[in-house]
């Protein structure tokens, strides 16, 4: 008996099984509890590092985002811009094209808009200028999406690094033009008073509305159009797509043009509706954050509004903590990083379950 | 003479990429695409410099100061690598997304730590890092101990990957984990160790960049861009650390072309600097395109790069 036991392989303490058909409410309970736990951990860390009591921490987090009506508007604006950029990524990601170049695509759209202002500012009326800026931004964004897609479609060039490198090309192009446009050598162009979008109520509402309309259009495009279907098939299996007669090359290039064009529109909105200026850091890493936002929303345009709200909330709220407690401006990215770790990690508990070893009753 | 300084400077800057590249090659050979390398390199500089700050005027011998801070940087990177492997290997989450969060988190945490290191005392150790040529007034001063360490690590990594059983097992885990698993190789163990060791090596690049190459207070702000180029260098070197040594030099040459070429060629104006600084990125793109068009079998990434392994998947 004893000998037999020794020869038996050691059974592990637990093993992992795939879960199927998890009810939707359960996935949301898991995700929400991950977010709550991670925010509590952040407040604990804040207590240990900067000595802010958890109550004060949470107070500042909410005060910074919902404290005044201006802060609420800023939060909505932040959400809208982030949602706009991740919206651009959704079709590409559904196709399994890892577009890490939203940062550069938005920036090049901004550059095109500012270039139009510089070229035509005194010669044509504002309304016409805005239209020209929009077209230029869309074309520029499209070009920045087309280049990597063309090589991916024809020679399967690695798109993750290609788009990543194009971000830097865009950054240095902006730096070049800033030098060109400022003969005094300051390399900052300040606030431009041309090519402004009209405003409704305040500076932010029109931009927010445009983004919401784009989300709705994208929802229809992806779920109820032939293009959307083709994107899903190519994302699922390239060979299946070829077999049923989809022109894979065309789909890749077309989808990336759409993706780049939306980034261009967002860039136009930032220049024409919000910033009225450009620097090499105008996008400020939002192109990368948008990748996480799109992924958290499971590449669903509607859910993406919620995930971008979460990230915008964390960003602005922890920005307030940073000013109240006078810590380094890197604090928001630490908070966002920790929360996202938990959100990513919790997907495991949605997709898999752990089965512990049962005591055998022999 | 300017040309010689240019070459030395480029060579030394390239070492930053070489660390990141060697680390990432080891990780990618196990089938994990770690996009957190920029954040990990930042963390390496933060933990290394924090260790240096703590050792300030404690009467510790010079060489020990360097060794301890190198170990601290390695451990910092290894911890980040452990977090990454826990999320991707054990929790089986998407590698691209996890890597990008690692970068955001790592860069943020580094800014926080470096901001808090008051008085920037850690820079006292600059001359220890630049050891044999610290007194030199020319670009030779950047060729300190860590330059040689990087080359040694790259050669050792190359040897282990291509000539030993461990390397063979590691490559098989990256090419086809199911087969490796069937052959009795512990896939999770290899993936964990490769990611952790790779991250530790990459982290040294951040420490080198801050303490040896630039030796300034705000150096940590530019490590992130260096990290992305290191990831690109992996493709440039076609997953071979030895080729990485050459590639890192080429990247170094193009990276500082913006500051050196206008000195050598007086007809280059101020406005052309952004274009010169664009060079490493453009060259990476060109290399990407060329390698993909040539499409040679031995220059391809590991077969299952970026795909998590779950034994029960088919």
Map the helices and strands.
The complex is a heterodimer of chains A (about 350) and B (about 325).
Chain A: H1 2-7, E1 14-18, H2 24-50, H3 54-66, H4 69-94, H5 102-120, H6 126-155, H7 159-181, H8 205-224, H9 226-236, H10 238-243, H11 248-275, H12 286-296, H13 303-324, H14 331-351, E2 352-356
Antiparallel strand pairs in A: 1-2
Helix pairs in contact in A: 2-3, 2-14, 3-13, 4-8, 4-9, 4-11, 4-12, 4-13, 5-6, 5-7, 5-11, 5-12, 6-7, 6-11, 8-9, 9-11, 12-13, 13-14
Chain B: H1 2-29, H2 37-54, H3 62-90, H4 95-116, H5 126-129, H6 145-163, H7 165-175, H8 177-182, H9 187-214, H10 223-236, H11 241-255, H12 257-264, H13 273-294
Descriptive notes:
The complex is a heterodimer of chains A (362) and B (314). Chain A is mostly helical. Chain A has a domain at 76-162 and 192-302. Helix content of chain A is 73%, strand content 3%. Chain A has a two-stranded antiparallel ribbon with strand order 1-2. In chain A, helix 5 (102-120) crosses helix 12 (286-296) and helix 12 (286-296) crosses helix 13 (303-324). The two termini of chain A are 13 Å apart. Chain B is mainly α and 314 residues long. Chain B has one domain. Helix content of chain B is 71%, strand content 0%. Chains A and B meet through strand 1, helix 7, helix 12 and helix 14 of A and helix 3, helix 4, helix 10 and helix 13 of B.
């Amino acid at each position: 008996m004893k000998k037999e036991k020794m020869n038996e392989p050691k059974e592990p303490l637990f093993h992992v099984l795939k879960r199927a058909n998890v009810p939707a409410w359960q996935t949301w309970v898991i995700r929400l509890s991950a977010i709550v736990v991670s925010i509590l951990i952040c407040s604990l860390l804040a207590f240990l590092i900067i000595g802010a009591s958890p109550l004060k921490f949470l107070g500042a987090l909410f005060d910074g985002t919902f404290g005044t009506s201006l802060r609420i508007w800023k939060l909505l604006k932040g959400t809208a811009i982030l949602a706009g950029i991740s919206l651009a990524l959704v079709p590409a990601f559904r196709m399994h094209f890892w577009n890490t170049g939203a940062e550069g695509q938005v920036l090049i759209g901004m550059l095109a808009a500012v270039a139009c202002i510089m070229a035509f500012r005194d010669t044509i009326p504002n309304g016409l200028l805005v239209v020209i800026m929009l077209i230029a931004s869309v074309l520029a964004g499209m070009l920045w999406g087309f280049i990597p897609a063309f090589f991916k479609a024809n020679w399967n060039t690695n798109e993750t690094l290609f788009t990543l490198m194009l971000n830097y090309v865009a950054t240095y192009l902006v730096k070049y033009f800033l030098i060109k446009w400022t003969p005094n050598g300051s390399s900052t162009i300040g606030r431009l008073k041309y090519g402004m979008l009209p405003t409704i109520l305040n500076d932010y509402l029109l931009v927010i509305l445009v983004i919401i309309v784009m989300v709705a259009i994208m929802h229809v495009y992806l779920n109820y159009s032939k293009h959307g279907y083709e994107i899903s098939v190519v994302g699922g299996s390239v060979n299946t797509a070829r077999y049923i007669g989809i022109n894979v090359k065309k789909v890749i290039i077309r989808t990336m043009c759409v993706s780049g064009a939306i980034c261009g529109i967002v860039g136009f909105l930032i220049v024409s509706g919000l910033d009225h200026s450009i620097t090499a850091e105008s996008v400020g890493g939002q192109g990368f954050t948008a990748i996480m936002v799109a992924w958290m929303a499971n590449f669903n345009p509607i859910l993406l509004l919620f995930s971008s709200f979460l990230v915008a909330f964390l960003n602005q709220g922890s920005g307030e903590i940073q000013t109240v407690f006078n810590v380094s401006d890197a604090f928001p990215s630490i908070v966002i990083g920790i929360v996202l770790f938990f959100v990513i990690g919790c997907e495991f508990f949605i997709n898999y379950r752990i089965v512990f070893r049962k005591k055998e009753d022999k | 003479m300017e040309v010689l300084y240019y070459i030395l400077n480029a060579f030394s800057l390239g070492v930053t990429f070489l660390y990141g590249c060697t680390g990432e090659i080891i990780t990618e050979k196990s089938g994990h695409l770690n996009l957190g390398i920029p954040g990990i390199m930042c963390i390496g500089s933060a933990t290394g410099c924090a260790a240096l700050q703590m050792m300030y005027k404690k009467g510790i011998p010079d060489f020990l100061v360097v060794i301890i801070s190198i170990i601290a940087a390695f451990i910092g990177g290894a911890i980040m690598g452990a977090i990454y492997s826990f999320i991707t290997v054990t929790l089986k989450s998407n590698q691209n997304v996890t890597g990008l969060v690692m970068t955001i988190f790592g860069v943020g945490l580094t800014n926080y730590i470096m901001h808090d290191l008051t008085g920037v005392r850690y820079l006292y150790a600059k001359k220890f890092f630049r050891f044999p040529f610290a007194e030199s007034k020319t670009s030779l001063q950047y060729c300190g101990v860590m330059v040689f360490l990087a080359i040694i690590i790259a050669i050792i990594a190359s040897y282990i990957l291509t000539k030993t059983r461990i390397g063979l097992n590691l490559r098989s885990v990256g090419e086809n984990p199911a087969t490796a698993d069937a052959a009795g190789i512990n896939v999770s163990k290899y993936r964990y160790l490769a990611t952790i060791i790779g991250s530790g090596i990459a982290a040294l690049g951040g420490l080198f960049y801050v303490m040896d190459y630039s030796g300034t207070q705000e150096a940590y702000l530019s490590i992130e861009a260096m990290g992305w180029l290191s990831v690109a260098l992996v493709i440039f070197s076609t997953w071979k650390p030895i080729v990485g040594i050459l590639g890192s030099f080429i990247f170094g040459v193009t990276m500082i072309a913006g500051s050196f070429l206008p000195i050598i060629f007086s007809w280059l104006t101020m406005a052309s600097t952004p274009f010169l600084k664009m060079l490493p990125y453009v060259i990476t793109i060109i290399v990407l395109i060329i390698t993909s068009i040539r499409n040679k079998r031995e220059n391809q990434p590991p077969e299952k790069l970026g795909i998590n392994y779950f034994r029960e998947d088919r």
